[in-house]
């Protein structure tokens, strides 16, 4: 089995860090994008190992690229029923109380499928829809989900959908309230706790929206990365900086018992790969039913009140998994921060103790959040550090992203957002091994 050249590129980029770690932590939910520089780097090393590897890796990579592009071009079409007329269905989503449009609501019409965002004016369009009855599902942060049925005819091609605000019964709940029990949701996300049900539903909406953005409107994004090997005894740093490009359409999903797993590389042989779940896994029933959740009241994030949810794996899960917390803005219901901590890391050899990943988010489109910064801390085993007490710290900052095949309605597909040049402040007693690289202008 030959690896995609992107995988080889990622392995090469992390080769330095392997001197201090026995596995590869994958913090970004994406896959490395092909660039001329990364191809040349991978090609040189592959060719030096064996010329045939370069040829095979290039063929596999081109085949995967062609299949990905073809998948993006094959837009699902609605089912046809007989030879009857078809219509262009243009709907609008508005708030019931204010009659204002709700931009970037999510809409899916069954059995047509093809979930999408509304535009800035809350409108969406489906083309060539046959007459008949359809189920419509609409979701928006801070609003009660709407599941309804419409009948498409020549006279009903411009429906208006009204959403009501989520009841604000959580305002008086404080983080010092009595301890609540941890509840395992059903597959549809239902829990028998009113406050938890409300906030967990909003957290899942955030997850579903990010998943929709990544899969339906795939994009390429650039990360500024700082890899810091920190000696806790004498407070010294060894830092490597780089800038890497990734793609959003990654198909990895949470599987119980597979957070840390073995893998095989033609270049490096047997390796350990750790894939910590991220926000999008909250939209997956497999992750929900493998964890229990509890509402922990209101706390503050940068002086902004947030609802906090804590979660933990089921006690019967003996393999490494994750526990953590999610913080949701109490006014907008946008996610602001998520913490994931590895559990039962001692069940694998060598042990992984104290791994923690913290992700902060920013609003990149109205009511759509995307990660802004990812920080991880991992104490290193003494065998890998010659007895010195060291931690491996990694910081990744989102620099820019652009949609590959067209973005959500009303969005410039060429470039959506670009962050100002990242200013790296190297810690005292540090020894940078490479100069930082800023975003392209």
Overall description:
- It contains 5 helices and 22 strands.
- The chain has 441 residues and is of the alpha+beta class.
- Strands 2, 10, 11, 14, 15, 16, 17, 18, 19, 20, 21 and 22 form a 12-stranded mixed beta sheet that branches. The chain has a 4-stranded antiparallel beta sheet with strand order 5-4-7-8.
- Helix content is 17%, strand content 39%.
- It is globular.
- Among the domains are: 86-165, Sandwich (Immunoglobulin-like); 213-432, outer membrane lipoprotein receptor (LolB), chain A (Clam), CATH 2.50.20.
Reconstruct the topology from this structure.
Blueprint: H1 5-13, E1 23-26, E2 31-32, H2 36-49, H3 51-73, E3 86-95, E4 106-110, E5 113-117, E6 123-130, E7 132-139, E8 146-152, E9 160-163, H4 194-216, E10 219-231, E11 236-247, E12 260-265, E13 269-275, H5 285-288, E14 291-301, E15 304-313, E16 321-329, E17 335-343, E18 356-365, E19 368-379, E20 390-403, E21 417-418, E22 430-432
Parallel strand pairs: 1-13, 3-9, 11-22
Antiparallel strand pairs: 2-11, 3-6, 4-5, 4-7, 7-8, 10-11, 10-20, 12-13, 14-15, 15-16, 16-17, 17-18, 18-19, 19-20, 20-21
Helix pairs in contact: 1-2, 2-3
The separation of the N and C termini measures 39 Å
**Mean pLDDT across all amino acids:** 77
Q: Give me the CATH fold name of the domain at 213-432.
A: outer membrane lipoprotein receptor (LolB), chain A
User: What order do the helices and strands follow?
Assistant: HEEHHEEEEEEEHEEEEHEEEEEEEEE
Q: What is the CATH architecture descriptor of the domain at 213-432?
A: Clam
